[in-house]
Amino acid sequence: GMLLATALELVTGALLERIFGQKWWDYSQEPWNFNGHICLKYSLVWGVLALFCLFFGNPLLVTLTNWIPRSVGQIIVIAVLILLAAVAAAALLVLFRGGAGTTAVVEREGERVAVLPLNEARVLEVETARGVLTVAVADGRAWIASSPCETGSCVQSGAISQAGQAVICLPCRVALRVEGARADGYDGITG
User: Fold this and answer.
1) What percent of the chain is helix, strand and coil (3-state, nearest 5)?
2) What pTM does this model have?
3) How many Cβ atoms from other residues are within 10 Å of residue 179's Cβ?
4) Tens-place pLDDT, residues 38-92
5) CA distances for 132 relative to 1, 48, 100, angstroms
6) Position 125 pLDDT exceeds 60
7) How far apart are CA 81 and CA 83, in angstroms?
8) Coil, strand or helix at 116
9) 3-state secondary structure 27-43
10) Quick one: DSSP state of residue 100?
11) CA 104, CA 135: separation in Å to the nearest integer?
């Protein structure tokens, strides 16, 4: 149970980072971590939860499913499988919609400020009404390194690298997006 849950956490974390261009959780500060997606401490927590499910959850689930008539149970299983297949198909479409990016485009209040090649390390300071917002580019990725906005959601969004991905700081009215082989528009809005 522990190994399966840890593997699922690793794959899910990597996919979410690839799809949305940000880490949804980060164990980088924990000892024995791997790319910040998994760590020994939480793998052990998953192991304890797996044991709890095995010894308490499974008997309860068996008791509850015995109350459901077989024909109704079959319909429920088929409906759940169809739903899971639809979700998986949608996830694959989102995952493979854009190619690797080649440039980072920075816009302030709808006006293009800079176009930065993703293969050249660079830091750009963008003057906004709220103060200076810093965009960084390195190793084929771009991100908002610092922002004067209150929430800091744009900074927490992390790096983007795929064509069509974007990070937007609404309070500062700055958009950072990646263009390349194919760009599908904004990925998400933060602020």
Assistant:
1) 40, 30, 30
2) 0.49
3) 18
4) 999 999 999 999 999 999 999 998 998 889 998 998 999 999 999 999 999 887 7
5) 48, 47, 28
6) yes
7) 5
8) strand
9) CCCCCCEECCCEEHHHH
10) B
11) 10
Taking Cα atoms as reference points, which of 158, 128, 164 lies closest to residue 143? Answer: 158
Structural contact between residues 150 and 171, judged by C-beta atoms closer than 8 angstroms: yes
Strand partners, 125: 134
Ramachandran region of residue 142, left (φ > 0), alpha (ψ -120 to 50) or beta? beta
What is the distance between the alpha carbons of residues 111 and 126, in angstroms, rounded to a whole number? 12
List the end-to-end C-alpha distance of the chain, in Å, as a whole number. 38
Burial 56-75 (b: 16+ CB within 10 A, else e): eeeeeeeeeeeeeeeeeeee
Contact 104, 136 (CB under 8 A): no
Q: In this structure, are residues 167 and 183 in contact, taking their beta carbons and an 8 Å threshold? A: no
Q: Is the dihedral of CA 168, 173, 178, 179 positive or negative?
A: positive
Q: Give the list of residues 6+ apart from residue 87 with CB closer than 8 angstroms, or none.
A: none
Nearest to 88, CA basis, from 96, 98, 76, 100: 96
pLDDT digits (tens, 9 = 90+) for 4-25: 999 999 999 888 887 766 777 8
